[in-house]
Structure formats: structure tokens, C-alpha cells
């Protein structure tokens, strides 16, 4: 079931994304090529899926969330481009292909990431992609800016870089990952809900609880896969976190306990969706997928 839903959403968001990578002048062709490469070189599109699924959960047509889906994927892609740079995680492989700074060069990768970040907000404000009223689009921009910035994803990455070689306790580890990984996942769900035009305060609260649980579960499973999987399956270097002496859930809790914790978080996410009917089934499937995935 999730495979068919994922395929439909991937086609929808990829079609919407394609139109954003048209260079306005020949001089910008290489920059736009690097931006396109960074986004259109594969990927599971989990964050767009969450945006579409949240929109549909509240009775909105999925096309209403095209802007939200593009925006969260563009922010995600920008973060990967910058995370892979030599000054950060210094990775050569992403999604089974050379990272952007390897396929182009370091300066071009920095600029491509910068461009993707600003393009995300362009997508949210484009009435063709986001046909919501201006007040709703403003709320969506505010939510994405908060999640992507120093109070969210960027702050989490800063904590992550400062934690290399340290032994964090579980509270500190979760604080880091609720920002680094969880903030954008929460924003994906919130933007999709707002895009529906039908979200009330109680529904947003329930969806936030769901998103917080799966955001943390996503990172726990990533840490598990860094131990158990292989480079070919992951599409990036296996064991990279261990090699960098980064704090992870398997290192802190043990591998079996980390797996149990991922399942506990999945169940919390499913519990948060109790107020919703069959329309929330894609969100339920995504919660299960996040802890079952192998890459």
C-alpha cells in the first residue's frame, strides 16, 4: 500500500519540482544544474509524502500541498548539500552518487544549497503551487522558517557538530535530534495540514504529536541502519557516524534497545492519530515505513 502511495506522491512532487530548475539566463545554467542535481538524483521523498498525507487526512486534495511538498524537499536537499561539505561531515557519496561538491565543486555546492533554501520559500509563495489564501501562506512560511533555522534544523546541526566525541545522555541526544531531524519532519506535517485549509487547533495538536514521534523514530532508525546496513543499500557511507565518534542511539542504549525504542515511538505516533478516520491511513503507513525501511 505504501509503495503505491509513495510512487504517486513522488511523481506529483517531482513534476512540481522540475519547473523550479529553469535557469533564467545562460550565465546561471551551471548553478541551476547543481541545484537540480542535488534534488532530482533520487531520494525517498518522505517529507513531501508527509505533507501530502497530512493534507489528505484533513480532507484536502493532494494538489493543495504541492507548494508545501516542494518546499520541505528543497530545504531537506539544501541541508544535505551543506552537511556533506568537507567543513561539515565531509561525505563523498549521497543516494549512491557523488555528493554535490564532488560532482561540481565546493563553492558551487555552497551556492546551490543557498539557492535551494531560498527556492523553498519561493515555492510556498507561488500561487500555482500554493493556492491558499495569503494569511495561510504566511503561516506556512513562518512554520518552515522556524523549522529550518537556528531554532530548528540548523541549530540541531550545530549541536551535532559540537557533540562529536562526547557522551550525551538520552535527553541531550533527543534534544539534538528533535531539532536536527525532527523539526523539518514536524514542519512537513504542519504545512500539509495548513495547505488543506481545514485544520483546527485540536487536529494540529494531534498531528504535531504524531510528527514528533516519527521525527525521533526516523533518527533512531537511521542510527540503527548506520550499524546494520551497508553502503550499497544506504546509498551513503555505512558506519560514518561510528567513524566520526558521533553519539547515536545504539551506542547509548544498545542495538536491541534502540530497535525497541523505534517501535515504541511508532506506536506513539499511531496512538496520536486515533482522532482521525480512514483518511489518515497514509500517515499510519508512513509511521510503520519509517521504522521498517532499510535505507
Q: Which secondary-structure class do the elements indicate?
A: mainly alpha
Order of helices and strands: HHHHEEHHHHHHHHHHHH
Residues in β-strands, percent: under 5%
The gyration radius over C-alpha positions equals 18 Å
Low-confidence stretches: none
What is the count of β-strands?
Answer: 2
What is the mean pLDDT?
A: 95
How would a crystallographer describe the biggest sheet?
A: 2 strands, antiparallel
Q: Could you give the distance between the termini? A: 18 Å
- Count of helices? 16
Walk across the major sheet and give the strand order.
Answer: 1-2
Walk me through what this model shows.
- This protein has 295 residues and is mainly alpha-helical.
- It is 69% helix and 1% strand.
- It has 16 helices and two strands.
- It has helices spanning 2-18, 29-39, 46-57, 66-83, 100-103, 106-125, 134-148, 153-162, 170-180, 182-196, 201-228, 231-234, 240-243, 249-253, 255-272, 281-292, and strands at residues 93-94, 97-98.
- The longest helix is centred in the C-terminal third of the chain and has 28 residues, at 201-228.
- It starts with a helix and ends with a helix.
- The model has no long low-confidence stretch (mean pLDDT 95).
